[in-house]
Amino acid sequence: MRLFLRLVLGIIGIAAWILLAGAAAPISGVRLLRARQENAGTRDVEWDSTSFIVKGQRVFGWSAEFHFWRLPVPDLWRDILQKLKAAGFNGVSCYVHWGATNPSPGRVEWEGYRDYELFIQMAQEAGLWLVVVCSRTVAGETTAGGIPGRVTNIAGFLRSNDTDFYESYQDYYRSATEIIRRYQVNEGGPERCLRHEKQHVFTFHGYR
């Protein structure tokens, strides 16, 4: 039994040493140049084979996930985020819900349980990086995967390049990305990553 415990503790120690060594590893000129080429030249958020590099500092992402719009009392969001931070996470991933924020053409709402900007501010106050998923579908057992009901009746295929589908989410994307832009790392905000699609499986015809 003692031998087994020593073996387990030894493995844990080696793993911790590897993680710490990676986090403290110097960023070589060649590696950083390659990372910047792969990252389209940005200097604020970069990455290489070891970790993310945020404003010159290595960051090992340890992110939880919280769908803020599932908890319709914004006053409770801060408590959840603080608990994530206390649990050891340094980031939180969240989806922006198209169906909830853009119920009809030309109408985009960010009030109440949809207040994404308030959620960002609370995450930053809690000391968490933000991984944003601003996609046309969130899946997650939501109705129509988060696509507004009105869009399911269009003539074209969903999640395709059909013109009527493309036009259906432009109001949502323009409004959401304006909020996202203001809170990116290069603007002093907590947003480190942005995903613009969720589990998209390409088919020739798209989805009905």
Describe this structure in words.
The structure is a single chain. This protein is of the alpha/beta class and 208 residues long. The termini are far apart. Strand 1 and strand 2 (52-54) form a beta hairpin. 23% of the residues are buried. It has a four-stranded parallel sheet with strand order 4-5-6-7, with helices on one face. The longest helix is centred in the first third of the chain and has 23 residues, at 2-24. It has seven helices and seven strands; from the N terminus they run ααββββαβααβααβ. Keywords: Hydrolase. InterPro entries: GH, Gly_Hdrlase_35_cat, Glycoside_Hdrlase_35. Residues 51-190 form the Glycoside hydrolase 35 catalytic domain.
Topology summary:
Elements lengths: L1 H23 L4 H10 L6 E3 L4 E3 L2 E3 L3 E3 L11 H10 L4 E5 L2 H4 L14 H10 L3 E5 L29 H6 L1 H13 L8 E5 L13
Parallel strand pairs: 4-5, 5-6, 6-7
Antiparallel strand pairs: 1-2, 2-3
Pfam families: Glyco_hydro_35 (PF01301)
Keywords: Hydrolase
InterPro entries: GH, Gly_Hdrlase_35_cat, Glycoside_Hdrlase_35
Low-pLDDT regions = 3-25, 202-208
Order of helices and strands: HHEEEEHEHHEHHE
Note the gap between the termini: 58 Å
β-strand amount: 5-15%
Shape, principal axes of CA atoms: globular
Tally of separate helices: 7
Which strand order spans the largest sheet, edge to edge or round the barrel?
Answer: 4-5-6-7
Structural class: alpha/beta
- The tally of strands reads 7
Radius of gyration: 20 Å
Oligomer: single chain
Helicity, as a percent range? 25-40%
The major pleated sheet works out as: 4 strands, parallel
- Taking all residues together, what is the mean pLDDT? 79
GO biological process, one term: carbohydrate metabolic process
Keywords: Hydrolase
GO molecular function: hydrolase activity, hydrolyzing O-glycosyl compounds
InterPro entries: GH (IPR017853), Gly_Hdrlase_35_cat (IPR031330), Glycoside_Hdrlase_35 (IPR001944)
